[in-house]
Amino acid sequence: MVARLIDEDPEGAYGYSKVALRLASRVAAVREAGGFAAYANQKYAEALAEFRAARRMTGGVELWPLMADCERGLGRPEKALDMAGAPEVQKLDKAGQVEMRLVAAGARRDMGQLDAAIVTLQSPELASNSVQPWTARLRYAYADALLAAGRQGEAREWFAKAVEADKDGSTDASDRLAEMDGVEFVDAFEGDEDEGDEREARGEADEDRDA
Q1: Can you tell me the distance from the alpha carbon of 204 to that of 128, in angstroms, rounded to the nearest whole number?
Q2: What is the rounded CA–CA span in Å between residue 131 and residue 46?
């Protein structure tokens, strides 16, 4: 239920995770699910505690980037950067290493180090033309960092590249690109609703006159 609800109803997922933790707190998967649910609700201290517990039970490093991001959420970007340089990062798979790079860049931005954040994201994965599950988010983060640094031309280029890789709409890169190009989206139904309101108002006025 946590996995089913966490994207659309994070509060509901959190409620289920608390029940599961009461029933089976010694199961690593339950502690991990509790961490994800707390993380989705920005309860970073609780999420970090659950992720640490799950890691102690399994001995794995898969949760390392999430633990580092929890440190960011708790206002400790320096700790997140320390974790980015820890030996555990070398044990992560490619997706985990990219995620760790994203967290480290975010920590640099938290500290006001925009140029360092940009450099952190520059990697073979960013330069690659092949599209992987992490490609859109990596390109998006790079574009956003460039824009924050005032490098609008480069930012637009990378937002466009993020759009190319974002087949499932995991980012709002297309909206950001349109915003940079000055494109405004108009609700197609808004005009119809306004016209309907006007017709209704005219009808009521006619009824009042007839009365």
Answers
A1: 63
A2: 34
Separation of alpha carbons 167 and 135, rounded Å: 11
- pLDDT at residue 23, rounded to an integer: 95
Query: Of the given ranges (22-26, 42-46, 132-136, 178-182), which has the lowest mean pLDDT?
Result: 178-182
pLDDT at 183: 79
CA 205 to chain centre: 51
Instruction: Give the number of residues written for the chain.
Output: 211
What is d(CA 70, CA 99) in angstroms, rounded to the nearest whole number?
A: 13
pLDDT band at 94 (very low <50, low <70, confident <90, very high): very high
**Nearby residues of 190 by Cβ (< 8 Å), 6 or more positions away:** none
Query: Which pLDDT score is estimated for 3?
Result: 92
Of residues 132, 133, 162, the one with CA closest to residue 147: 162
- CA atoms within 13 A of residue 105's CA, in its CB half-sphere: 25
